[in-house]
Amino acid sequence: MPTDSPRQLAMKSAAEVIVYQNSGDACIAAAERIAGVMKSKNHPILGLATGSTPIPVYQELVRQYQAGHLSFSSVSTYNLDEYYPISPLNDQSYRWFMNHHLFQHVDIPANQTHVLDGTVPASASTEHANQFDRWIEEAGGLDLQLLGIGRNGHIGFNEPFEADLAEAVDLPTRLIELHPVTRTDAGPAFGVVDKVPTHALTVGTRQILKARQILILAFGKNKAEAVAASLQGVPGSNVPASLLQTVADRVVWILDEAAAAGLKV
Ligand code: PGA
Q: What pLDDT score does 265 carry?
C-alpha cells in the first residue's frame, strides 16, 4: 500500500486527478488499479506504455505476480508505440523494453503480447498499423490504457500538430515523424540525439480515447507544464494529452507533487 495520503484535486472536467507526495507511491497505486482491472475480467485487454515513468508500475505488477496474487495467463496486451525502423533485438526497442521489464517475468503467453513491428517494410506500414487497430477492436477494445506524457504533451507518439478537434481525436494507428522535443528527450537512451530514430509507429488517438479506462501518469517538474496545459488548457491537437478532456469521465491522472505544481486549484 502507498505510505502517504494522496490528495485528490477537483477539476472543472470530470477527470479524476490524484496527487502523491512521491512517484513510488503513485506507481504502487497505479499498479493496484491495473491489477483491479485484471482481476475483474476473464480476458483483460491492456494497452501498455513504455518510457521511464511506468517502470516501477511494472516492477510492482511483477512483485504481485511473484507473490501469487496476480496471473497474466489470460491477459492480452497492446503496446502504444515502437520506434521505426528498429529491430526488436535492439535494447532501445520497446519490444525489448516490455520483455525486459514485464513479459519475461510473468506468465503471459508470448502470443498474447502485441507491440507494433519496427521491422515492417515501409511499404507495408499502413497495412500493419491498420491491422493493429483491427486486432484491438476484434479483441473487444482496451479495458485499460496506461499512458505517460511527453514534455510536449504527446501521448503514445501522437505528437503535437495542427488539426481541428474532430480530426485530432480520430487518428488511426500509423507511422509518424518524431517531434524534435521527443528526439531530444530520447537522446540519452540512444547515446546521442542523432541516433534516435526519426520515425515511430504509434497507436492513434482514436483507439486510446476509446479505452474503457485511461490511467495517465506524470512525475517530475519537467512534466508540470504539459500536465497543466492538458488538464486546464483548451483541448486541441497542439497538446495531444488535452484531448483526454473529451473523455474525462474515463480518465484518471496520477501525479506527484512536482508534476502537479502548474495546476491552478
Ligand atoms: P517518460 O516518457 O516516461 O520517459 O518520461 C513519457 C512519454 O514520452 O510518454
A: 84
Average pLDDT, the chain: 96
Q: Which among 148, 145, 189 is positioned nearest to 27, based on CA atoms?
A: 148
Query: Ligand 1 in contact with 51 (CB < 6 A)?
Result: yes
pLDDT recorded at residue 202: 98
* Residue 179 annotated to the active site: no
Domains and CATH numbers, the chain: 7-256 (3.40.50.1360)
Q: Catalytic residue at 152?
A: yes
188-223 CB burial, b ≥16 within 10 A, e <16: eeeeeeeebbebbbbbbbebbbbbebbbbbbbeeeb
Instruction: Locate the ligand 1 atom nearest the alpha carbon of residue 151 and give its number.
Output: 8
> CA 21, CA 121: separation in Å to the nearest integer?
45
pLDDT of 31-65, one tens digit each? 999 999 999 999 999 999 999 999 999 999 999 99
pLDDT digits (tens, 9 = 90+) for 238-260: 999 999 999 999 999 999 999 99
1 pLDDT above the threshold of 70: no
Selecting among 159, 185, 256, 257, the annotated active-site residue is: 159
**Does residue 26 have its Cβ closer than 6 Å to ligand 1?**
no
Closest-CA residue to 205 (of 138, 255, 159): 159
Closest to 112 in 3D by CA, of 38, 171, 216: 38
Which residues is 9 bridged to in the sheet?
Answer: 17
| pLDDT (0 to 100) of residue 91 | 96
Number of H helices, E strands in the chain: 9, 11
Tell me what the mean pLDDT of segment 173-182 comes to.
Answer: 98
C-alpha grid cell, residue 52: 521511464
The string of DSSP codes covering 218-231 is: E-SGGGHHHHHHHH
